[in-house]
Design a protein that fits this description.
Order of helices and strands: HHHHHHHHHHH
Radius of gyration: 24 Å
CATH architecture of the largest domain: Orthogonal Bundle
CATH topology of the largest domain: MetI-like fold
Helix content: over 70%
Strand content: under 5%
CATH class of the largest domain: Mainly Alpha
Shape: globular
Length: 300
Amino acid sequence: MKSEILRFFLFLVLLSFIANFISIYRAKDKEFLYADGGISKINRETSNTVFAVSASYFQFWKNIIREGGGKTQSGENIYSHIGGRILPSFHLALFAILFGSVLGILSSSVSLFFKSRFLFKLLNFLSETILSTPVFVAAVVLLLLFFYKWELFPPGGYEPWNTYYVVLPGVALGMRVFARIYLFHSKEVWMEAESPYILLLKTRGYPWKHIVFKEIFIKVFPVTMILIVLDFGSLISGAMVVEEIFFFPGIGKSLFFSIKSMDTDLLSTLLLYTGVVFYILNRFAMKWQKKLSGETYGST
């Protein structure tokens, strides 16, 4: 427990320093703003870089601890700003992870149940195609079909807990979750189907449906759940491209806005938030994996 707390403390210190350094460097080095104008040289600040970074770092933690995160450039409290975007991001991540993981697990189980190598290879090819296609392509296609052509779903926005608004961005993100989960889960279930234990169940006359949807599922699902937790961590930390396309008021869109507007305090706080969320879920997944590995080792 103590080692875990120390690890998290060291991670927090390093993450906060990197987040603060990136944000102030982005804000102060403005030469890229004049690239289109053909201006190659601009006046740079000549203040002591080390002193400036140190002062900004201490001010960052002062804002975090005592001043509610500080203020955005528009004068909004940063904690209030982020707090108003946690629910949309959580709702979107939850929909995407449920859509993608359920579809991926069900598809791999069905292909095994029917013993269809053709379906297995077809879905495998589809999953690889999805992973090799940029996510914004799927988002634009969904917009063209389900909004402009059929007018079934809104093009963007959000209302609290109204799933109607998260379907299109959730499917765009969930497709990649489906692809990753299917590629892993399908390989595992087909391998498990050839294990000595499953062959023993077959010889004893167990129904194939019981073997696939209970015995194999129970054996493989805990390991698959580790990937689901990791995917959920990355989604809840923000999906900038998809949220920007669908005008979705989540963490990802706020992060994109802070980068674009060079809002130093907001950017550094958002980077800290996303890093901490992903770290916690990642450590949880690693602990779970070690526990499963220990149980597996002990059972053998």
